[in-house]
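Practice record 12: protein with NG1.
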Amino acid sequence: MAQFQDVSKQSALHPKPAGLVLQYGTAGFRTNAKLLDHIMFRMGLLATLRSKKTNATIGVMVTASHNPEEDNGVKLVDPMGEMVTPTWEGYATQLANAEQEDVLAALKEIIEKEAINMSQEADVFIGKDTRSSSESLSKAVLDGVSALGGHNKDYGLVTTPQLHYMVRCQNTQGKYGEATVEGYYTKFCHAFIQLTKNASNCTDDQKHLSVDGANGIGALKVRELESHLKKELHISLFNDGSAGKLNHQCGADFVKVQQNPPTGMTVNSGERCCSFDGDADRIVYYYTDSEGHFHLLDGDKIATLISTFLKELLTQAGLDLEIAVVQTAYANGSSTNYLEETMKVIVRCTKTGVKHLHHAAQEFDIGVYFEANGHGTVLFSEAAQEKVQQLTEDSSGERKRAALLLQNTIDVINQTVGDAISDMLLIEAILAIKGMTIQQWDAMYEDLPSRQLKVKVSDRRVIDTADAERRAVSPAGLQEAIGALVRKYGRARSFVRPSGTEDVVRVYAEADTQESADALAHEVSLAVY
Ligand code: NG1
Ligand code: ZN
């Protein structure tokens, strides 16, 4: 067939380095940008097949999120804006690793297995982050799409969650919003303005927020967002990409892992600050106190604030909806304890990676999911959304006010995936409505001191885990060694797992003091060698 001739011709222009093996990991493919041209072309092919198969628009995002500038990556977005299914992740890995002469055979195998009708139309949306390599890599994706006769819409520079949003809007015929960057700002900012109308006596000081844009796409988008905020939020933007390097000593991952403020930012004592990551799907908050101590409010604290707010609104509205918080093994033990014991909400623990959290959150009327690193969102079931909508029409007084607040809360949230901009608007609205300072929010519970380390090993895949990654089942003896070390410390917990985005093993430890958490993490990392 003519289209396969095109694939062969184009594929030769995007050759695979012989012997290179990469895997579709926690967040797609990610490695040094120089190794990715063939992957991009092939993901263009695969997205086109996925579009034909689902008869819907599919997204391809070119980004390596919080990784260094030299890296890049790619992931596919399914029709409702969610991550692509595990079976297709498997196809992605197969297609990516087929040697040059086997690409067509690998492609035909997928077509056959999935019984894809090749005469079906295909539509692919493409977005990219600000890395210098993203421009040419996204062109390689476009080549892949056109080689199989697919149509494309190139959104250019957008955040990862903006691309997810576009895909969902397109596939729900505008029901979720308009599939344009302008439509994105209009929807989320309108809901934010509606919410802040419920905040009485908010001073200009309280409306001020310092944002670290990680020198990435998030900074560009915060600039665009500002004009839609009608002065309800005053943003001072730092690390806007004009001078510093992407993610270098700044951004949400740096702040979370180093437990320090980013460089390039003025952090005045007591002031509310936040950091985005390199593709703006993560956010963490922080402040320094009068003694210069740094206080981090991570994904766990964000989940706690949001679920408290939602629970209060449900009570005021008299709505009986089941709310749950989904976390991973990295969630601070204090947060899990607070959520279960004080707030009495259901807590679930899943493997690392938002696709796992997203999936678990879908099982509840309202599923609040956050990774400790600040990646997360809230999902509302169709039935829950309908009940809220109905109540805004059928109620009055306090119940109607709560129902309208819930309605606007649903609208300010990007339900497709974690989104730094949308999460920021929600958090700012909650703090304003509750008249809460960042210090009061921080005081909801006290984090157990923790430490994260990375260990380089020759083959990280020898480590296998179970029980949502909290237990190592191989190599033999490792779990026992970790157990013995944990028993030496008070309120201690530790686990190890191979990273899905970097060639390292991650070590996590928490304990009753910072010294103990640091010592435990160090001792466990020695046990991993
Ligand atoms: P890996 O490298 O698999 O630990 C990291 C984050 C994940 C997730 C992905 C994708 C930690 C400990 N891990 O995955 O939570 O966000 O990157 O960005 O933060
Ligand atoms: Zn990210």
